[in-house]
């Protein structure tokens, strides 16, 4: 300790300005560099990093002051012939911070640390983007989307998109080896360790856009050169650390937001929620903040291969669309014959669309043969990547994911009432979210209470609801596939009672058609499992027909169906449910709801989103 | 887990390298797919930790390549080839679509990896060579790995 103090005294002696920094360990950036969080009971600092050797001081995880002393002592030692093990190279973020605050005159770690220098593109690092990878229904852990960071090496040209850029990921270790139930249990209870990792961006690009067919939204941050250096240096430090992973809150969105707060003076971590949806980070980044200034300098979509196909298709004229439709529906017919029949030319535009289409089709002999035919025809023509696609509205300009609502109810059997609803996340058929699947629903922990005659009743707690009509929307051609809906939760038996809860799990599959842009009809059939005192038959078959209309200022949803007992064939119950919704911006809307199930109920809902 | 994965994949790569040694005596040019284990390379799927390790795997393969080159100079030309081969193997479907259209981010990266002096000339030449391959009747029946190797050798020939 005496040596440390001596070193510090020497450093300070050469830097009068630093004398004012005796409480430097309390600096917000220092606390963020070590991820120290202030606990209330007992009052103390503890880092959320659980890797003990990340800390230089003996109890550095709980002592930011001692860790600062130990870091300073480490920084002043000679670099030696292998500098990568030196504190300057292991903790370049801390070094940049301390050098700035104390004017230590330290060497530039990006210049003298070989591994850091190579990792950061040999000095070409010039920007950072946060990437929002669209939700993926095939994996429950990715249904709400995913976050990455991209460290740009465009040498000052923001239009250059180098797929060799470093991308930073945050995820739970070994989580993919577990089944859904263990994954949910371990994810909810913090039984996964998690870490940041670095990888060339093209690996993520291939995996997300080409294989999983997920769009990526790229938000370039409005950072100074110094902020880019500090952030990337801090990321380098964190690559050797681990945290505990919690599916609901301390997930990828939370940890990436925490990282960004080092250089962005905003509350990006959702402190007012007990969950963190990845898209929350973008709403926080894009929010108006006169004190902090803009956090985003540019936002744009990197389309998946499937989206590129649909976008290209939308831009085609009628004749070229017919050519694409005919070529994909009659793969055995020679392409030139198809073109001749349709009176269309095998020009670059329809061939580009076909090239995109066959790039994401599952391999089969007829598919491969047609694909080779399309490629051969396209290679014969000059290069032409086609017209630029107008950028759609980015996710942060859409509806926020969390919702509270109050609905005034009129029930023809139970009388008047008020329904209070809280849905932490995320969207339904009529939501105005952006960057989410069209004609789809995804919600979690959707809670409804009803207040009637001074009594408050639990009406429904839907733990999970996932639905997709399998439609691309906006008139684009659709991927062949089933519509589906799965839901699990607790709800009242029907609308004739307030204290008659049952548990349920339901899955149904069917088909949907988009009749015109924004208007779709669907049919679903499936099974339902119920449990509760009021139940006469635990197993039921279900069937439903519905329609969805999505307009600029609102939408209409209507569904009618029935539930038929399998063992007790007399147990059947028809239902009708629907809503007309009018939006007032993206923060709020009004809905007129109607529902019949044993009784008839009409409601007037006001919803607020945040 | 990461180290296990790296070790396992490196072992697979070394087995592939060893089994390829006998074949190399009859081939005139080195083939990273056979000589350096690119054919046996497994890219990150959903496991993020494996994703974290992939750069190490590439580095290991590079080390393997250097070792092979030291013991048998005709097997591998060195790390650049392996990097280019690994990139092509991972991104072949995208490269194929970008080549068909004539431009794209992955083609730009490929030109950089193969140290092309003029990206436009590199891409145009590569496109012309792949046009010949794609036009062959047997192209449709090739595996993705075989198509990727054709692209690799075309790029190698241009950059040589």
Automatic annotation (TrEMBL), chain A:
Residues 1-20 form the signal peptide. It comes from the Bacteria. Residues 23-100 form the DUF7843 domain. Pfam families: DUF7840, DUF7843, Lnb_N. InterPro entries: DUF7840, DUF7843, Lnb_N. The keyword Signal applies. Keywords: Signal. The keyword Cell membrane does not apply. Residues 118-282 form the Lnb N-terminal periplasmic domain. Residues 392-596 form the DUF7840 domain. This is DUF4105 domain-containing protein.
């Amino acid at each position: 300790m005496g040596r440390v103090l001596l070193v510090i005294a020497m450093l300070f002696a050469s830097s009068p300005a630093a004398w004012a920094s005796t409480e430097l360990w309390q600096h917000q950036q220092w606390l963020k560099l070590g991820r120290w969080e202030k606990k209330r009971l007992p009052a103390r600092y503890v880092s959320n990093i659980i890797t003990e050797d990340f800390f230089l001081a003996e109890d550095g995880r709980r002592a930011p002051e001692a860790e600062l002393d130990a870091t300073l002592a480490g920084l002043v030692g000679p670099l030696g012939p292998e500098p990568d093990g030196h504190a300057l190279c292991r903790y370049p973020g801390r070094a940049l911070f301390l050098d700035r605050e104390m004017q230590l005159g330290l060497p530039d770690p990006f210049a003298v640390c070989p591994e850091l220098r190579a990792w950061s593109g040999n000095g070409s690092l010039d920007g950072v983007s946060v990437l929002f990878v669209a939700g993926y229904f095939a994996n429950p852990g990715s249904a709400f989307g995913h976050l990455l960071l991209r460290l740009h090496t465009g040498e000052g040209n923001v239009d250059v998109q180098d797929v060799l850029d470093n991308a930073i990921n945050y995820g739970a270790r070994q989580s993919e080896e577990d089944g859904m139930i263990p994954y949910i249990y371990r994810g909810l209870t913090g039984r996964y360790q998690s870490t940041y990792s670095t990888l060339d961006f093209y690996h993520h690009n291939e995996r997300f856009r080409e294989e999983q067919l997920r769009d990526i939204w790229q938000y370039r941050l409005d950072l100074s050169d110094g902020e880019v250096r500090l952030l990337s240096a801090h990321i380098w430090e964190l690559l050797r650390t681990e945290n505990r992973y919690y599916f609901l809150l301390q997930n990828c969105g939370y940890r990436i937001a925490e990282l960004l707060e080092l250089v962005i003076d905003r509350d990006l971590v959702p402190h007012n929620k007990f969950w963190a949806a990845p898209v929350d980070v973008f709403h926080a980044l894009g929010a108006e903040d006169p004190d902090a200034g803009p956090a985003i300098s540019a936002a744009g979509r990197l389309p998946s291969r499937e989206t590129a196909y649909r976008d290209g298709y939308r831009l085609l004229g009628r004749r070229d669309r017919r050519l694409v439709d005919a070529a994909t529906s009659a793969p055995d017919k020679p392409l030139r014959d198809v073109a001749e029949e349709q009176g269309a030319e095998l020009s670059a535009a329809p061939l580009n669309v076909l090239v995109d289409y066959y790039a994401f089709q599952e391999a089969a002999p007829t598919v491969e043969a047609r694909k080779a035919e399309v490629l051969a025809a396209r290679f014969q023509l000059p290069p032409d990547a086609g017209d630029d696609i107008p950028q759609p509205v980015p996710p942060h300009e859409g509806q926020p994911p969390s919702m509270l609502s109050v609905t005034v109810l009129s029930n023809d059997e139970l009388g008047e009432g008020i329904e209070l609803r809280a849905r932490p996340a995320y969207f339904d058929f009529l939501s105005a979210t952006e960057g989410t699947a069209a004609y789809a629903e995804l919600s979690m922990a959707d809670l409804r209470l009803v207040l009637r005659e001074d009594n408050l009743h639990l009406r429904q707690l839907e733990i999970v609801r996932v639905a997709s009509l399998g439609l691309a929307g906006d008139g684009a051609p659709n991927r062949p596939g089933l519509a589906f809906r799965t839901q699990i939760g607790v709800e009242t038996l029907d609308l004739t009672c307030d204290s008659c809860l049952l548990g349920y799990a339901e899955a149904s599959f069917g088909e949907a058609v988009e009749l015109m842009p924004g208007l779709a009809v669907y049919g679903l059939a499936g099974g339902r499992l119920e449990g509760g005192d009021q139940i006469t038959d635990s197993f039921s078959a279900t069937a439903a027909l519905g329609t969805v209309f999505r307009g600029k200022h609102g939408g209409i949803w209507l569904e009618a169906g029935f539930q038929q007992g399998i063992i007790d064939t007399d147990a059947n119950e028809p239902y009708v449910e629907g809503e007309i919704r009018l939006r007032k911006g993206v923060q709020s809307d009004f809905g007129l709801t109607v529902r019949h199930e044993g009784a008839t109920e009409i409601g007037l809902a006001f919803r607020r989103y945040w | 887990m990461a180290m296990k994965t790296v070790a396992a994949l490196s072992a697979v790569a070394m087995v592939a390298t060893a089994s390829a040694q006998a074949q190399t005596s009859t081939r005139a040019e080195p083939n990273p797919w056979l000589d350096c284990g690119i054919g046996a390379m497994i890219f990150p799927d959903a496991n993020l930790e494996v994703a974290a390790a992939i750069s190490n795997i590439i580095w290991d393969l590079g080390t393997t390549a250097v070792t092979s080159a030291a013991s048998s100079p005709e097997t591998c030309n060195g790390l650049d080839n392996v990097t280019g081969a690994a990139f092509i193997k991972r991104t072949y479907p995208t490269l194929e679509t970008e080549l068909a259209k004539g431009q794209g981010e992955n083609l730009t990266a490929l030109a950089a990896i193969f140290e092309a002096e003029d990206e436009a000339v590199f891409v145009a030449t590569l496109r012309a060579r792949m046009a010949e391959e794609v036009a062959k009747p047997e192209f449709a029946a090739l595996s993705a790995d075989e198509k990727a190797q054709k692209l690799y050798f075309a790029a190698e020939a241009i950059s040589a």
